[in-house]
Amino acid sequence: MQGVDGQVYPAGTIEFLFKLTASGSGLMSLLDDSLFLMDFEKKLHGYLFDESLTEFFHVHPQYEETQGSWALQQELPVDGHYFFWVEGIVQGPSQTEVLKAGSTFRVLGGQPAHEKPALLLEQLSVSDQGSGAEIEFLDELQTGRSVTFRVRFWREDGSIPQLGQYLGTSLHVTGASLASGEMVHAHGMVFREQGQDVVYVSAVFPEAGSYRLWLQFVESEVLRTVPLSFEVRE
């Protein structure tokens, strides 16, 4: 991500301009939007979060033909060290490939930065304005292997949650390592169990330590973003 890594931005509305490149035959080539396929209704997905894993934004940069760069405008009022990851599917000469690229930057001059904790306390259930979600791991939480977990949804008033669609799916799952900021992104499959929708998700966690997991889903026509946390072992 040329143009973002190591930059310092003033807090507030930040305009990001960056280039994406790929190497082949010893040469570097710029990746414009013509090379990306639509993936969950967008050509490029972006994820911004601070090193404490408190601030989180799922964003969608757009390609600016006149500048030959990808562009994004985002409000970031809180100071700190941030990670910026982008992900998309690129059509190569013979096959499609997943592009995943990351950068870091700093924000200064705004609200005080969140303190980065030594670890995150386990939290596997969380609510948001009367609607909630909880996860149950069906495999051992270990690095380097596919881990499957089940996501159940609930409402504080006891009624059955009504899941909708967000960017072409029922659930977006974004995770990040507290130690390194390495990102994990996954989606799931919806099943009907006991009259309610549940989602099964599989993901690989690249390193041991604390992780934050943000679940994004539409329930009762409202987009919810809820954070969970847990520990992954070697």
End-to-end C-alpha gap? 30 Å
Please name the CATH topology of the largest domain.
Immunoglobulin-like
Biggest sheet, open or closed, and with what strands and sense?
8 strands, antiparallel
Computed CA radius of gyration, to the nearest angstrom: 18 Å
- State the secondary-structure class: mainly beta
For the largest sheet, list the strands in their spatial order. 12-13-14-17-16-15-18-19
What is the string of helix and strand elements? EEEEEEEEEEEEEEEEEEE
Question: Which range best describes the helical content: under 10%, 10-25%, 25-40%, 40-55%, 55-70% or over 70%?
Answer: under 10%
Name the CATH class of the largest domain. Mainly Beta
* Low-pLDDT ranges: none
Q: Bin the strand percentage.
A: over 45%
